[in-house]
Design brief:
seven-stranded antiparallel sheet, single chain, alpha+beta, 2 domains
Length: 318
């Protein structure tokens, strides 16, 4: 039996996905064989999607499917297929950091705020539930039973939607707690770093339909700051969160240094408008440029470590 050679061949294994509500299949460029598909969220769950000015859904569930070609062997053993599902903005996936508020495809600020007040679907990853069986040329589950590709997509999609349910979501949360310490530690470090980039430094990390950032990280163009979140200071646009953080750090530093010793360097800076301005601008640039870029590099580094760790686990599965 010939193994899937690219994303198109892998996609064929999942049948007529359009009939089940999956749209916009895209072949991944960062995997030997992988693809992504999208599906709208049902209207009867607690999560409410962001909408455009025309009332169309902007929030969408995106599912990435990757065939683990490195697990192929001469023994014709089943090869793992990994899945990831997460919340994605259709507008940001196409336009990245475009700030055209008049674009009818852009979600309105009011709908974004309303959506963020509702429970957010949890991103899920499944790496050991389904396999490609070279003997049958189809998919099998972990018990070796034949399954349809569309059923695999439906399962992870439904599990993703259930994460916002107060009762059904308990099972998913319990499984997440049961993950290994190392895996949880890496996930939390990456999530905390991404949270800090967004909430402390006003940065946005955009997801791509043609790239699985969970395993392969983010590209430079995925990282930036939104113009609507910035204010201008001396001709330089600074995210509001960075400016707030700078004020807090400045006030804290002044509290601990006051009163300054006479003829000390701190005394010289305080009594010189030029030196004080230079130090303030340097500190602001440090918080707005150097620190976020170091954290962005750290996020990609941690993602690379996690990928290597998962690959090590796959290689050591009996």
């Amino acid at each position: 039996m010939v193994y899937p050679q690219d994303g198109f061949e892998l996609l064929k294994l999942f049948g007529e996905i359009e009939n089940a509500g999956y749209v916009n299949p895209v072949v991944l460029t960062d995997a030997n064989a992988g693809f992504s598909v999208q599906r709208t969220y049902p209207g009867d769950i607690k999560f409410k999607t962001a909408k455009t000015s025309e009332g169309k859904d902007d929030s969408i569930a995106c599912i990435w499917v990757v065939y683990e070609s490195k697990k192929q062997s001469s023994k014709n053993l089943p090869v793992p297929i990994r899945f990831r599902v997460g919340l994605m903005s259709k507008y940001r996936a196409r336009h990245f950091f475009d700030d055209d508020d008049l674009d009818p495809e852009k979600p309105t600020k009011m709908s974004l705020a309303a959506s963020q007040r509702t429970p957010q679907p949890i991103e899920l990853n499944l790496r050991d539930g389904y396999y490609f069986d070279p003997h049958t040329g189809g998919l099998v589950n972990e018990k070796g039973c034949s399954v349809k590709g569309i059923d695999a997509l439906n399962e992870i999609y439904q599990a993703h939607c259930d994460t916002v349910h107060p009762v059904k979501g308990l099972g998913i949360r319990s499984k997440q707690v049961a993950h290994s310490f190392s895996r949880n530690l890496l996930d939390k470090l990456i999530d905390r770093s991404k949270w800090s980039l967004k909430n402390l430094f006003g940065r946005t990390l955009n997801e791509r339909t043609d790239r699985s950032s969970y395993f392969d990280g983010y590209k430079g163009q995925d990282f930036g700051k939104l113009p609507e979140d910035c204010i201008e200071v001396l001709g330089y646009k600074v995210p509001k969160r960075v400016l707030g953080l700078f004020i807090i750090l400045s006030a804290t530093t002044a509290y601990f240094l006051y009163p300054v010793e006479e003829r000390s360097y701190a005394d010289l800076v305080v009594h010189s408008e030029v030196l004080l301005t230079i130090h303030c601008l340097t500190g602001l640039l440090f918080l707005d440029v150097i620190v976020p870029h170091l954290m962005f590099a750290a996020v990609n580094g941690l993602i690379n470590i996690r990928k290597r760790y998962l690959n090590w686990l796959l290689k050591n599965i009996p």
